[in-house]
Amino acid sequence: MSVTHPLLKILKVALLELYNEGGKIYDTNLNLVPFCRALEDIFRLGLQRNHGHWFTKADYWTVFIKFGDKAGPGLFHLIKFVKDNQKAMTDQGRGRLFIRACLVKKDLASLVQKLRDDTAFIEMWYDSTSILRDDILSEIFLSLLAEVQNIPFSLYLKNASFLDTTWDMAEYRDYEFVPCNVLGVHLHYVDTHLVVTDVDAESVAAEDGKISVGDVMDELYTESLRGAKRGKVRDLFQLYKGMPVYVSFVKARLPNGEIYRPIAQLLREVDIDLSHMPIKGEPPADNSVYRKPAHAVLPEEEKDEIPVHGPDGKAEFTVVYRGFYPLAEDGRVDRIHDSIENVITDSGRRKEVVKIETTETGVEVRRLSDNELLLNHSYTEVSACGRRTDMLLYFGYIAGETTCNMAKDFKCYVFESEEASEAKIILCSIGEY
Fold first, then answer.
1. 392, CA 20 to 30 Å: which among 53, 110, 267, 314?
2. Which residue ranges does the record assign to the PID domain (predicted)?
């Protein structure tokens, strides 16, 4: 008769799903949350009451803290990192941040091995129902965690302000704005979060539609704003007056356009309904071909810029083709941001020097060495183009397998230019059609 446990079965299935991805695991991965939930359930199973928590059951984060110095230097520093973090305010949130940090640093198996070996400590905190106290089940758990070591987790640990309530992760954006006295956003404190309730037109914040109503201002000049005293934003602006503005936001909308559930709850408290507000970058309701012009997504664009074309109507540039990222049915311009990161951080992709041509009818990409046609998309197939403001040499365009209003298989094609100004001109060449 085989020895197993339902939670270990769940963890194994979730682990297999992640393993089959074959690349880096980002916060947007749909299989990440079930995997983390399974880990959390295992660490909670069999926890004993009291130990200083007279009215509530101690959570697993308390166990990790008490283990402290026994964990070794690496784990000790991870524990300190979480304790010093101002964004996770509950034991649940801190425990989740610690698990995410262990996945990134590949320290989870080491932690469980040390816990398992300290019999007296484990028996003090867990009862006999715990997987950690069972010799066979804990060995199976460790074997699964050994496989976890082979998975490259690339999780954004700054994105921690909602871990108190959910494992689901929102989009997190870091922005740099020009020096200014007023950013142009109206903020409202809701349950320790600074929620954007309005954005002034023509303000720095309104540039390219980066910041939207419902977004949560999470950091300013790298300082956390969660639970900050009123006036901290003003004080930081005054302290760093004359310097570029570095600010981070938790986005109200997910990549699929849905509203992030924890933020939706905050918005109800201030009577803001985003369901009636248009989604930036969403195709028009009449199903006509949507293409956001390049100057709408580039921070420094001038709307009257005209790309340089040759006498045959072509604009031709030599760049490096970095590869593509599949987007399924989502051809919105918002996906360019994460697609570029996914492509350029995949070391297994092959780089090719190519010529990219924007003709009167579409975009052609040919290998420079033998002139072989690699990509050919008509403008009716191109749904968007743009680049990240923090990686100006990289740019991309999104195209489907047929016209945009009928396409079901969009891909973002990513390129690298030698000059940021050249990338800008190429995007303007695509965006003007």
1. 314
2. 316-432
